[in-house]
Amino acid sequence: MAHILSGAPIAKRILANLKKKRKKNLCLCVIQVGDNLVSKKYIEEKGKIAKELGVVFRLVLLPSSISQADLKKRIEKIGRDKKVSGMIVQLPLPKRFNTQNILDSILKEKDVDVLSSVSFSAFALGVLPIMPPTVGAIALLLRETKKKLEGRKVVVVGVGRLVGLPTALWLAHQGAIISLVQKETKNASQIIAKADIIISGVGKPGLITGKMVKKGAVVIDAGTSVEGGSSKGDVDFESVAKRASFITPVPGGVGPLTVACLFQNLFLINE
Fold it and tell me: How many other β-carbons are positioned within 10 Å of the β-carbon of residue 186?
């Protein structure tokens, strides 16, 4: 049976350390467009932690009817506000928006999510002092396994901007042998079955099953979706846990650690 990699204890240590470093006048601004109930849940969690850390939390709610141009102007105006230490555009945005174009309105100096093209390019080149929060969370969980990444066969399932792509870039810097699996990938199951480490961030419940996992593999589930009112990951936990050496649960694995890493980024860019 796999050892469960819980993100909560690590997140607790990070937040405790940040409390000791408490800085006055830090302000995190979150911009939400429309009324996405799942987004609302994540925003509430960020607000709760901000309060614990003594960080001013500013939520800007904008109607889904706002135009692309007006949204960009609003983001740019918030970015110029010297009282704002870091900012987030809560995803997903309504489908009619050009998401990357909107994210590119965030100043690199305040981009705690590392989602603007400028920030992401700096991260890809290894010259950014912070990592995308999800990548930071995955890195910390992998460290808990005490397994070296160099030379390991790692399969990243999904090549999205939030999980797959940045994680693959980070792993490349660590010397891992990376395979990317997406919808169009042929023989995906066979590729996954050869992996020493599997990282999935698709958002499709039950995508990874026990039959697809090599005995002793490390499985990191960074997928997020809601099914029947509860959070679900990409991994069929019960069947995969019987074969993996380490596995992250959903909820309680990557999620809480991602939020902690986000606040760690806020502190780092304001040192």
Answer: 7
For this structure, is 48 an active site residue? Answer: no
Helix (H, G, I), strand (E, B) or coil at 125: coil
Query: Which one is catalytic: 90, 111, 236, 264?
Result: 90
User: Which position among 32, 46, 111, 232 bears the catalytic label?
Assistant: 46
Same domain, yes or no: 167 and 92? no
Domain that holds residue 44: 25-107
The two structure tokens encoding residue 257: 């650690």
Whether residue 226 is predicted with pLDDT greater than 90 in this model: the reply is no
Residue 231 is predicted with a pLDDT of 84
202 contacts: CB under 8 Å, gap ≥ 6: 157, 158, 160, 223, 234
In a shared domain, residues 103 and 136:
no
pLDDT digits (tens, 9 = 90+) for 171-222: 999 999 999 999 889 999 999 999 999 999 999 999 999 999 999 999 999 9
Catalytic residue status for 90: yes
- Among candidate residues 32, 110, 113, 264, the one labeled active-site is 113
Note the pLDDT tens digit of each residue in 40-78: 888 999 999 999 999 999 999 999 999 999 999 999 999
pLDDT for 163:
94
Number of domains observed in the structure of the chain: 2
Distance CA 46, CA 49 (A): 5
24 is catalytic: no
Is this structure's pTM higher than 0.90? Answer: yes
CATH of the domain at 88: 3.40.50.10860
Cα-Cα end-to-end distance for the chain: 43
Write the CA distances from 123 to 148, 166, 244, 253, integer angstroms: 22, 8, 31, 24
**Does residue 112 lie in a domain region?**
no
